[in-house]
Amino acid sequence: MSVLAELSLFPVDKGESLSPYVTRMVRIIKNSGLDYTLHSMGTCLEGEWPEVMDVVDKCFQDLQQDCGRIYLTLKVDYRSGGSNRLTEKVESVHRQLGEQA
């Protein structure tokens, strides 16, 4: 089983620059050992359902310690038997466009 999850999680009560909080979340994701891709509006992760949801929960619990209001969006794509979808989905589109990934 493969779950792709796009996560955006940040406090809304900590001012304009949120990169220190985003860095905390990315550190948790990185330390999880799951494959991930950071982009400008969130982070995509790939793994098994329990692993991915555990990382989401750890990120939320970390922010909850010192943030009074938290914004979270989570999109999940499950595919039975899939793997390496984090990069393969993007590469497939590039191939169809006749481009190098």
UniProtKB/TrEMBL annotation:
UniProt cross-references to Pfam families, sorted A to Z: Thiamine_BP
InterPro entries: MTH1187/YkoF-like (IPR029756), Thiamine_BP (IPR002767), UPF0045_domain (IPR051614)
Thiamine-binding protein domain: residues covered: 5-93
GO CC terms: cytosol
Transmembrane segments: none
Superkingdom classification of source: Bacteria
PANTHER family tied to this protein: UPF0045 PROTEIN ECM15
Sequence similarity: Belongs to the UPF0045 family.
Protein name from the UniProt record: Thiamine-binding protein domain-containing protein
Lineage of source species: Bacteria, Pseudomonadati, Thermodesulfobacteriota, Desulfovibrionia, Desulfovibrionales
